Amino acid sequence: MKQEITLKQESQKLNVMKPITEFFKLKFGKVNFLKGFKKTGITILSILLFLGFWHLGSKSLYNKEADYKIEKALTEQGQAAADAERACIASGESGCQPNTLPSPTQVWASLQSLIADHYIIKQKKDAFATKMEATNQKLIANGKDAIVYTGRASFIDTVLTSIKTVFAGFLLALLIAVPIGIIIGLSPTLRSAFNWFIQIFKPVSPVVWYLLVFMIVKTIYIGKSSDNAFVISFISVGLCAMWATLVNTAMGVASVDKDYINVAKVLKLGTFQKVFKVILPSSLPLIFTGLRITLSVAWMVLIAIELLAQSPGLGLFVWEEFQNGANDSNSKIIVAMFVIGIIGFLLDRLMLMVQQMVSFNKNEGI
Amino acid sequence: MSTSTINTTNTYSENGILYPSKVMLDLKDLKKVYPTPKGDYVVLENLNLQIMEEEFVTIIGHSGCGKTTMLSMIAGLNPISGGNIAILGNPVKGPGPDRGVIFQSPSLMPWMTALQNVLLGVNQVFPHATKTQRTDIAKYYLHKVGLDGAFDKKATELSQGMQQRVGIARAFAIKPKVLLLDEPFGMLDSLTRGELQDILIEIWNKEKITAVMITHDVDEAIFLADRVVMMTSGPKAKIGDVLNIDFERPRTRKSVLDHPDYYTYRKHLIDFLEH
Fold first, then answer.
1. CA distance readout (Å), A10 to A5, A314, B151
2. pLDDT of residue A200
3. Which of A178, A256, A267, B92 is the most buried (most CB within 10 A)?
4. Does the beta-carbon distance from A260 to B107 stay under 8 Å?
5. Structural domains in chain A, sorted by start
6. Which domains does chain B show, CATH number per domain?
């Protein structure tokens, strides 16, 4: 017996080591290394090409707008004005710069200024907090709300708000869609009863969902001073994004392999056992595929919904920069675009990892 | 060589006295009809078969003749259109753990380990046993099918042959009255198939559970069976002929192959299938 136990431990240890050794094999095996190098090389090359095209494109757009401005000054105000305009553009003064697609370098500069801005705002926040500490303690002691910093949010704060909103929305979608999906998957009657509902509400646009949620939440929050933008945006995101999970869960539950159902029948498993031991585990991969789609849809609609709900996230940031029209606004919008894209990609990878963990057939799913 | 009618009853001796053995499974005027847009399609009609306690019966016949339909009707997975099926005199009404089924594909739950797959049935059949007792039963049968080192392996990590071994362990572990095998080795290569036939017959020799097995393989049919039942081709398939295999048990593959009657049996079956 004892020997058996030690054997087991040993095999467990080996199992722990396995991924590590595999990893090294993968990374440092000669053939794989070359292959990996080639793959990374191609990726880097394509990124460089992309940046090159972007740079050339933005430059030609810049020149086009600059030429137009000079031309306009020439025809409307004469040669002197045109020369002044040309000099002004060449000097790089912000007032007369063409406002077009920013170049990669401008975007990079904007990213750095946004990060620097974050530290400035953080300092302000900290200073405010220390200044108000005594007052706030008094306020709390008297049973009143503490005074909080209500200044401008930094770019990084908006990113964090967006991530918070998307996760709250995702959680809501999961809590609604998975149980309903299981129930309608189990019963063909309920499936046909719910089908029209799903078919009609699935294609509804995020904007309309927002308006619907706004109508309801506004009334619920009536007379309260607290800010409901976050609540409205996460509920709208959840409602928009839950359909993929709902449909996939119902499909997964309804289409369990007939062999497994036969086994359950032959063994005469009770309903509870049948659902939790056979049907649910076998539909988990499809449920998680649905959840993965839900998360990516949630992130996609989030931007539009934050914009409408005035929730201080990335959506609002993009919209405000567009309205702002300052010299670096366009490059800030492009920064936001990349950040949105990268976070979306990372969220998808995260879900893919979870999906592969629950998938019993390792070849399934991409 | 002896062919016999359907109602031949085997006898066994106890203290020198001959007792007729009990009828375990009784199919009477069994009929199966599938409705189609062009009218009813009669798969089976007037099918009569009695299978005795502790008897191993193999069923052969051409593809699509309704063998699997018959077996799934005995398992209770397919409704009966006419006639009836009784186990020890009680009519079959739906599936139940008194009939263990080994399916053509192993049908293991891929998210469970080999042990969990066997336990799924054991837990259901022995709800009052302690957890250790149930685990012991499951482990015993996994040991019997030669899977000692694979208790905690996920079903997907096992080869097709090993998965089917778990399928055999799962079926025996619930101690059924009747074992139904639907071409269980049809998907395996011939080497693995031989191994599994040996394992099956070894456990069966010990447990003596009445078994009905569908096969396409004439040699397999002779090696395993007390009687080989030949079904006519559909539609309206019924029992065409029955061949008693009078080899002694326990058998070994070699003793069966060396037996002078072996080729006569084989010829009989092949003649039936080819005529």
1. 9, 50, 16
2. 92
3. A267
4. yes
5. 2-96 (no CATH), 153-358 (1.10.3720.10)
6. 11-98+176-274 (3.40.50.300)
